[in-house]
Design a protein that fits this description.
With 307 residues, the chain is mainly alpha-helical. Helices cover 66% and strands 6% of the residues. It has a single domain, classed as CDP-alcohol phosphotransferase transmembrane (TM) domain (Four Helix Bundle (Hemerythrin (Met), subunit A)), CATH 1.20.120. It has ten helices and five strands; from the N terminus they run H-H-H-H-H-H-E-E-H-H-H-H-E-E-E. It is globular and about 75 Å long.
Length: 307
């Protein structure tokens, strides 16, 4: 693939709207950097799935390095975690370049994300426990990892619920492309204090922000010779507080607002004149019943064909 002009490589590898969709780091740093790496490894015959598994290996190694609990261990862990985020973009670019994008590849990518979201905080917590001998850090790492997992699994669980209902449908539903929404540019930073606080908490739970916070803590610890990893302790505490708050709020809000039902209705709809009802354990598509008393009388017409 080295013979491809760079503009053509970019067109084939990058996803639609790559310059405006996604977080700032992906738009400005990681996707452009990943494209150069993709250009290098593409002629080697590396598959997108192998790139995903390599990224997973980097993420797991990063968690182990954070558990090592030394300033240099944290530096290595931070570098590996940044490498994981870079390779997480290379796999998709390889799939688009070769035309091998598939649901199986996307599924593997999501499994890798969930694994890293859980393991990295666990590794940090285990390392702080080993350094301080205080079991509270094991609990903090576990709570942080589980909270991040709940945040990312919420949509996965919602779409699994969609499939479960669709398996129990008798009849036909129309699939409305984009009915549940499409990727959109990031909204502007809110200005009101309460919304800004909520926005900051959500951003703190995004994996690229977590990777950058851990990298800053690692660099600070190395410069200051902080063998007690005070900066790392503070970093994990902040991430955990944000993750617990966001996880609890997102689940409670989704349940209270009926978000899953609303999104299902946006994606899957009965045809005009029909409705979907729950009968005897099945979701049945039936003709929509109208109340004759509430229906207006038919208009009379002098046209014999219409009459």
């Amino acid at each position: 693939m080295n013979h491809l002009p760079f503009d053509e490589l970019r067109r084939r590898c990058q996803k639609p709207g790559y310059r405006c969709l996604g977080n700032w780091m992906a738009r400005r740093v990681t996707r452009p950097a990943a494209l150069h790496l993709t250009r290098i490894v593409a002629p080697w015959g590396i598959s997108a799935n192998l790139a995903t598994l390599t990224a997973l290996g980097c993420g797991v190694a990063a968690a182990c390095c954070f558990a090592w609990a030394t300033p240099w261990g944290w530096i290595l862990g931070a570098v590996l975690l940044q490498s994981w985020y870079l390779l997480d973009h290379v796999d998709g670019q390889l799939a688009r370049l070769r035309g091998t994008a598939s649901l199986d590849g996307v599924q593997l990518d999501y499994l890798m994300h969930h694994t890293i979201n859980l393991l990295v905080p666990l590794g940090v917590g285990a390392g702080l426990f080993g350094r301080s001998a205080e079991p509270i850090w094991l609990i903090v790492g576990l709570v942080c990892g589980l909270s991040l997992l709940v945040i990312t699994l919420q949509h996965d669980a919602r779409y699994k619920a969609f499939i479960q209902r669709l398996k129990r449908v008798e009849g036909r539903l129309e699939v409305i492309g984009g009915g549940g929404g499409r990727p959109e540019p990031q909204p502007p930073v809110p200005r009101t204090p309460s919304r800004l606080l909520a926005w900051t908490a959500r951003k703190t739970c995004e994996i690229h922000v977590i990777a950058n916070l851990l990298a800053l803590a690692a660099l600070g610890q190395l410069i200051l010779g902080d063998e007690r990893l005070v900066a790392g302790s503070a970093c994990l505490a902040v991430i955990t507080a944000a993750a617990v708050a966001v996880a609890c709020w997102s689940v409670l809000y989704s349940q209270h607002s009926g978000a899953a039902e609303r999104e299902f209705a946006a994606w899957f709809r009965p045809r005009p004149g029909e409705q979907i009802v729950f009968l005897d354990g099945w979701w049945c598509v039936r003709e929509e019943k109208t109340n004759p008393a509430s229906s207006p009388p038919p208009e009379k017409s002098n046209n014999p064909i219409q009459g």
